[in-house]
Design goal:
Helix content is 37%, strand content 12%. Helix 10 links the parallel strand 3 and strand 4.
Length: 949
C-alpha cells in the first residue's frame, strides 16, 4: 500500500477485496462493469486534464503556503460581516468534530436528538432576541433570508391585494447593497416592483404589499421604526426587518414594534468570517405564518412512550414539496453554523451576551469621542457599533492600509468604521492614530472605554431574553464540553457507521480537507476586502472553478451559489438572461420529468418559468414520446429542460443525447441537476450529454460535509454561450460581461467551505477521482447483488446495472403489515441510518454507499438488510406487536424490568453479533409526527414545561 497516496485513504475498498466483489457482481473486471453501466457514446475519450495528485502531507504544506498569501488586516468594513471570537470549546468540539460535521439532515429524529436540541436552542435565541413568535432552523445568508421574506409576504397578500395585482415592495435605502442586489434578482421574474427610498419621507400608496427595513442601517445609523410600521399596518402592508443579531441584545426587538418578519445573520455569534461564509442566517416571524415560513422548523412532539421528543415540524420544513406551487426552493439550512451560533449563546448566556454587546457599543462610543476631539464630525446620531465620519478618505486610506487596517470608504469624504467583539483598546488606539496622522494632529491615547451610551431610552431594550435553563447552566468550559458531548452521543453520524442515503452521497470528509478551516489566515478574511488582500483565496477559488469546469466539460464556473437549490435557481436565471439577450424573453416553458427533485419545479417557478411535467416510462426513464409531444406543443416558448443524470432512479438513460438535441433543436437550453455527479466524474460529463449548465453539490460529490443539514455549496458550471451571464456582486466584481445580479450575499458564496473541495480534487487528481467514481458504482452494484432475491431493485440500466445508487422496492411488504418506515426505524437497531425513504418513489428506499466505504461495512449493511428481510417474513398484517413495528428500541426500553414483547431483548437490541461490538442506542422511541404538528412548540421554554407535565 502506498501510504502517500490519498486515494488509498479516501477509497474504502482494498485491492484484496476487489476480486471477491467483482465475482459477486459477475464481471471479470471493473472496466466491464463500467461498460455495462454507462452508455458507450457518452464515455470520456481522454483522461481529465488535472494537476498530479498531492499527498496529504504535501497538500497541508501547500494550503499553509497559500494561506500566507492572504493579508489578515483588522477589518472594520461592516456591511453585515464582523470579526467574531469563536470559543475554543466550540471550535474544538463542534467545528473540528466529525461527530457533528458528518451527520445528515435530521429526517430520522430518533437518532438525531442531539442536533435537534442544538437547533431548538438556536431557534429560541432567535425568537428571544427578535421578539418574534417563531423562527426556523436557519437559512443560507442574510440577503437570501431577506429575499425569502419578500416572497413570503407576496404570498401573504390580502385577497384584495392579490385581486388587484399589488406588486410593489418598498426597500429602505439603508438596506445592505448585497441584499438589494439579491432582491433585484428575486423580484424581477416574479413581477415584483422594488421601490427604494428614504423610510422617513416615504408615504405608502394602495399599490404596495410590503417593505424591508435595516436595523441598524448599512452605515450604522439606527432609527425608531414604530411610526413607519404603524403607517404600513394601517394600509395592510406587511413589514420585514433585517436586523443585526448582537445589537438586539441592546435595542428594542423588532417584534415589539409590530413587524411581520425579522431576518439577519448569526455570523457574529462565534462564526469565522471565512471570506463570506458559510454562516447561518435567521428567519423569524409570527406563528400565524407557520405554514408559509421557508426552510425547516424544529418542533417538540412525543415518542411512543409519551416522552418529549424533537423532530422537524410541519410540511414547511421542506416547502419545495409543493413543487411548482412553492414560493421558495429552500431545502437546506446551515445546521453546523446554527449549532455553533446557538452554542455561543449557551456558553455566554444572557449576561455574557450583554457584556459583549455593551463592550462593543462602548468601544464605538469611545471611538466617536476620540475622533470628535480630533475635530471630525460623526454623522450617526444613534448607533450601536458602526460610526460614520466626515474626513478626506484619500488621506486616510493609504495610512490605514500601511497599518493593515480596512475601513469602509463610502465616498471621498465619508469613512465608516464598524467595531466588533474582537476590537481591543490597542486596536482602538491604532484606529485613532491613523486618523491623527491623516489630520496631522497630535495622537491621543486612550486607556479605558467610556461608560456612556449613544442608545436613547426610546429604543433601548427592556425585555429579558434567554431565561431558559440551557442558557444559564454551561458557562465553564468543562460544563459546555460535557453538554456538547451529551448531545453528540444522541446523534448517529459517519464516525459511527455508513449513511447510505441515495442522492445525498455521504462520503468521507477527510481530516486533511477539513483542517484548514480552523486556520486564522483562512477564517478571518472579510468578504469585501480588496482582492489583493485575499490572494490565497483567489488562487484557491480560481483553481477550484477551473477544475470543476474541466470535470464538467464546461467553459466557466460561478462559485457564488451556497446551496444546491440556489445553484438550480442561478442556472435557470442565467438561462433566462441568455434568452432575453437574444430577444427571446417569451421563452418561459421549463420541462421537468415527473421524477425530478421537488426543488427543480420550485426553482423554475421562482425564475419566472412555467413548469410542464413529462412522464417517466415503466423503467423509470424519461418517456421520450411524451417529451417529444410536449416539446412540439411548446416549441415556440421553450426555455429549458431540467434533467438529473444519471436519473433520480439511479440509471444512465441511453437516450440522453437524443433528449438534449431535441431541446436544442427547439430553441431551449438544458439544465442538468448535478445531484448524481458522483457517478460521472472522470467517466462522462454534462457537456458530453448535451447539457448547457449544471449545478454541483459540493457537499455531495466533492466532499464538503453535510454538517447535519448544511453547509452546502452549489456552484454552476456553464457552456460558452452562458458565461457572460454568470452572477455578479455589487461590491466586489464577479461574473460575466452581462452578469445577472447577485445570487447570494458574498461574491464567492461560502468561500471557506470551498477549501474542502479544493483539497479533495488536488489530493485525488485525475486517477483518484475517476477511481472513486468506478468504486462508487461497484459498491452500489455489490449491494444490489447481495440483496438480490430478497429485495427487488425497482430500476436498472439496459444491461441490468445500477449507477452509483439504486431503489429498493419495499411496497410488497405491506402484505406482511410492514411499511418502508418500519424498515427505516429497524435499521437503527442494527446501528445504521436509513437510506433515503420514499424518494423518488413512495414506499421505497434509495441506497447509495459511495466509494468511501470498505467491504466489511458494505457487508454489515447487507447483513442487516437481509436480517430485516427475515424478520419481515416472520410477521403478518395482523401482528402489530413485532420487532419492526416497535423499532427503534432504546436502552431504557430494553433494560426495563417490565418486558412484555413477543420477542427477546437480544432480538430487539442485538439482532446480529456485530451490533454488540459497537452498539448505538437511539435516544427515543418512534416519534409521533402528527401530534407535533397539532401542538406546535418550537422553542426551549415549553420543552421543560412539557417534560414536567
Amino acid at each position: 500500500m502506498k501510504t502517500d497516496v490519498f486515494a488509498s485513504r479516501h477509497i474504502g475498498i482494498r485491492e484484496d477485496d476487489l476480486q471477491h466483489m467483482l465475482e459477486t457482481v459477475q464481471v471479470e473486471n471493473l472496466e466491464q462493469l463500467i461498460f455495462e453501466t454507462i452508455p458507450k457514446d457518452i464515455r470520456l475519450k481522454n483522461p481529465l486534464q488535472l494537476d498530479a495528485p498531492m499527498s496529504e502531507h504535501k497538500f497541508l504544506a501547500h494550503i499553509e503556503e497559500l494561506s500566507k498569501k492572504n493579508k489578515v488586516f483588522r477589518s472594520y468594513i461592516g456591511l453585515g460581516y464582523h470579526e467574531s471570537l469563536t470559543p475554543s470549546v466550540i471550535k474544538r468540539n463542534i467545528l473540528e468534530n466529525p461527530g457533528w460535521y458528518t451527520a445528515y439532515t435530521p429526517y430520522q429524529a430518533e437518532i438525531a436528538q442531539g442536533r435537534l436540541e442544538a437547533l431548538i436552542n438556536f431557534q429560541t435565541v432567535i425568537t428571544d432576541l427578535t421578539g418574534m413568535e417563531l423562527a426556523n432552523a436557519s437559512l443560507l445568508d442574510e440577503s437570501t433570508a431577506a429575499a425569502e421574506a419578500m416572497t413570503m409576504l407576496l404570498d401573504l397578500r390580502t385577497r384584495d391585494q392579490k385581486k388587484n395585482e399589488v406588486l410593489k415592495f418598498f426597500v429602505s435605502q439603508e438596506v445592505l447593497p448585497q441584499t438589494l442586489s439579491l432582491l433585484q434578482t428575486r423580484s424581477t421574474p416574479l413581477g415584483i416592483e422594488l421601490v427604494v427610498g428614504n423610510h422617513e419621507e416615504f408615504e405608502f400608496g394602495e399599490d404596495f404589499y410590503g417593505a424591508l427595513l435595516q436595523y441598524p442601517g448599512k452605515y450604522g445609523q439606527f432609527y425608531d421604526y414604530t411610526s413607519f410600521v404603524s403607517k404600513a399596518k394601517a394600509k395592510d402592508i406587511k413589514v420585514a426587518v433585517a436586523a443585526d443579531i448582537l445589537s438586539l441584545v441592546s435595542l428594542t426587538p423588532p417584534g415589539e414594534f409590530g413587524v411581520d418578519v425579522v431576518v439577519g445573520t448569526t455570523q457574529r455569534f462565534g462564526i469565522p468570517l471565512g471570506y463570506g461564509g458559510p454562516h447561518a442566517a435567521f428567519f423569524a416571524t409570527k406563528e400565524e405564518y407557520k405554514r408559509n415560513i421557508p426552510g425547516r422548523i424544529i418542533g417538540v412532539t412525543k415518542d411512543t412512550d409519551g416522552k418529549p421528543a424533537l423532530r422537524m415540524a410541519l410540511q414547511t420544513r421542506e416547502q419545495h414539496i409543493k413543487r411548482d406551487k412553492a414560493t421558495s426552493n429552500i431545502c437546506t439550512a446551515q445546521v453546523l453554523l446554527a449549532v455553533m451560533a446557538g452554542m455561543y449563546a449557551v456558553y455566554h448566556g444572557p449576561k455574557g451576551l450583554q457584556y459583549i454587546a455593551d463592550k462593543v457599543h462602548r468601544t464605538a462610543v469611545t471611538l466617536t469621542d476620540s475622533l470628535e476631539k480630533l475635530g471630525l464630525y460623526q454623522t450617526n446620531t444613534s448607533y450601536f457599533d458602526t460610526i460614520t465620519v466626515k474626513v478626506d478618505a484619500k488621506k486616510v486610506k493609504p495610512i490605514a492600509e500601511k497599518n493593515e487596517v480596512n475601513f469602509l470608504y463610502i465616498d471621498e469624504e465619508t469613512v465608516s468604521i464598524a467595531v466588533n467583539e474582537a476590537t481591543s483598546i490597542k486596536d482602538l488606539n491604532q484606529i485613532i492614530s491613523i486618523f491623527s496622522e491623516a489630520l496631522d494632529k497630535e495622537n491621543r491615547v486612550i486607556t479605558e472605554l467610556l461608560q456612556t451610551s449613544a442608545i436613547s431610552d426610546e429604543v433601548r431594550r427592556t425585555s429579558p431574553f434567554l431565561e431558559n435553563k440551557v442558557f444559564n447552566s454551561y458557562h465553564s468550559e468543562t460544563e459546555l464540553m460535557r453538554y456538547i458531548k451529551k448531545l453528540e452521543r444522541k446523534d448517529l453520524a459517519l464516525n459511527h457507521s455508513m449513511i447510505s442515503l441515495g442522492s445525498c452521497t455521504m462520503k468521507l470528509n477527510a481530516a486533511s480537507e477539513m483542517l484548514p478551516l480552523s486556520q486564522v489566515n483562512w477564517g478571518n478574511i472579510h468578504p469585501f476586502v480588496p482582492i489583493d488582500q485575499a490572494e490565497g483565496y483567489q488562487i484557491v477559488l480560481r483553481e477550484l472553478a477551473k477544475d470543476l469546469s474541466t470535470i464538467t466539460g464546461f467553459a466557466d464556473t460561478s462559485l457564488q451559489p451556497n446551496s444546491g437549490a440556489q445553484g438550480e435557481y442561478a442556472g435557470l436565471m442565467v438561462i433566462r438572461a441568455y434568452h432575453e439577450s437574444r430577444g427571446d424573453s417569451h421563452r418561459n416553458i421549463c420541462i421537468i420529468p415527473a421524477s425530478a427533485h421537488g426543488t427543480n419545479p420550485a426553482s423554475a417557478v421562482m425564475a419566472g418559468m412555467r413548469v410542464v411535467v413529462t412522464k417517466t416510462d415503466g423503467k423509470g426513464n424519461i418517456d421520450v414520446d411524451d417529451l417529444e409531444e410536449k416539446v412540439a406543443q411548446h416549441a415556440e416558448n421553450l426555455a429549458a429542460l431540467m434533467v438529473t443524470y444519471p436519473s433520480t432512479h439511479g440509471v444512465f438513460e441511453s437516450s440522453i443525447q437524443h433528449i438534449t438535441k431535441l431541446i436544442h433543436d427547439n430553441g431551449g437550453q438544458v439544465y442538468m441537476d448535478g445531484a448524481n455527479m458522483n457517478a460521472q466524474v472522470g467517466l462522462t460529463n454534462p457537456a458530453i450529454i448535451g447539457a448547457d449548465v449544471c449545478h454541483l453539490n459540493l457537499h455531495k460529490t466533492f466532499a464538503i460535509p453535510h454538517g447535519g443539514g448544511g453547509p452546502g455549496v452549489g456552484p454552476i458550471c456553464v457552456a460558452p454561450q452562458l458565461v457572460p451571464f454568470l452572477p455578479s456582486n455589487p461590491i466586489i466584481k464577479t461574473g460575466g460581461e452581462k452578469a445577472i445580479t447577485g445570487i447570494s450575499a458574498a461574491p464567492w458564496g461560502s468561500s471557506l467551505a470551498c477549501l474542502i473541495s479544493y483539497g479533495y480534487i488536488k489530493m485525488l487528481g485525475e486517477h483518484g477521482l475517476t477511481r472513486s467514481t468506478k468504486i462508487a458504482i461497484l459498491n452500489a452494484n455489490y449491494i444490489k447483488s447481495r440483496l438480490s432475491g430478497k429485495f427487488d431493485v425497482l430500476y436498472t440500466g439496459e444491461q441490468g446495472r445500477a449507477a452509483h445508487e439504486m431503489i429498493i422496492d419495499c411496497r410488497p411488504f405491506k402484505q406482511n403489515g410492514i411499511e418502508v418506515t418500519d424498515i427505516a426505524k429497524r435499521l437503527m437497531d442494527y446501528g445504521f441510518h436509513a437510506p433515503t425513504v420514499s424518494f423518488p418513489v413512495a414506499g421505497t428506499v434509495m441506497i447509495e454507499p459511495t466509494e468511501s466505504e470498505g467491504l466489511s461495512e458494505l457487508d454489515r449493511f447487507c447483513d442487516a438488510m437481509l436480517s430485516i428481510r427475515s424478520e419481515i417474513d416472520a410477521v403478518n398484517a395482523d401482528d402489530v406487536d413485532n420487532v419492526l413495528k416497535n423499532a427503534p428500541h432504546t436502552l431504557e426500553m430494553v433494560t426495563t424490568d417490565d418486558w412484555n414483547f413477543p420477542y427477546t431483548r437480544q432480538q430487539a437490541a442485538f439482532p446480529l453479533p456485530y451490533v454488540s461490538e459497537n452498539k448505538f442506542w437511539p435516544a427515543i422511541r418512534r416519534v409521533d409526527d402528527a401530534y407535533g404538528d397539532r401542538n406546535l412548540i418550537c422553542t426551549c421554554a415549553p420543552i421543560e414545561a412539557y417534560a414536567e407535565a
